[in-house]
Amino acid sequence: MAVRQRAVGTLPNLIRSLRKESPNPKPTNPVVLPSLRRAFSLYDQINLIDNVPEDQLRFQGYTETGFKVNGVDYQGSLLCVGNFLMSWAPTKFSDITPDSLSIFQTVRPIPEIFVLGCGKNIELVNPELRRFIRSTGMKLEALDSRNAASTYNILNEEGRIVAAALLPYGVSS
């Protein structure tokens, strides 16, 4: 108790001495403040790779021949619709046709975005395939498979209705 009284007694003296200092002291080592976006975000507290709800797909890695999804290694091309994952027949970019994506004529609800993983490089999607994807009501995003998997993760994490068709990263035209 005596320590507390002594501390309370010295507090006014401390305040007075601080007021006597220069009103605009120049800092010797200015500290750069973080941006407001970073200061008020929770991004640093979210682990997008490991903390995955059981009912949500998450691409965790890739190889030249396949992908790791929710801790399971898959070989070959994959087709993801929402949180459903299935093997997909195309083995090279030229195999991707409206027939290989015919599932989107029956899937409901229709995904708003279709992420196409083209393999190692981004490929130009032929007009017929673009028309087919547009006719289903989806928007097309063609990327290399590594970035396509990441884009799928982010959109799925946001709760968006998203679909992805990915060739293994080792595929090149």
UniProtKB/TrEMBL annotation:
It is found in: Mitochondrion. One of its GO terms (cellular component) is mitochondrial inner membrane. Keywords: Mitochondrion. InterPro entries: MTH938-like_sf (IPR036748), NDUF3 (IPR034095), NDUFAF3/AAMDC (IPR007523). Belongs to the NDUFAF3 family. It comes from Fagus sylvatica (Beechnut). This is NADH dehydrogenase [ubiquinone] 1 alpha subcomplex assembly factor 3. One of its GO terms (biological process) is mitochondrial respiratory chain complex I assembly. Its main location: mitochondrion.
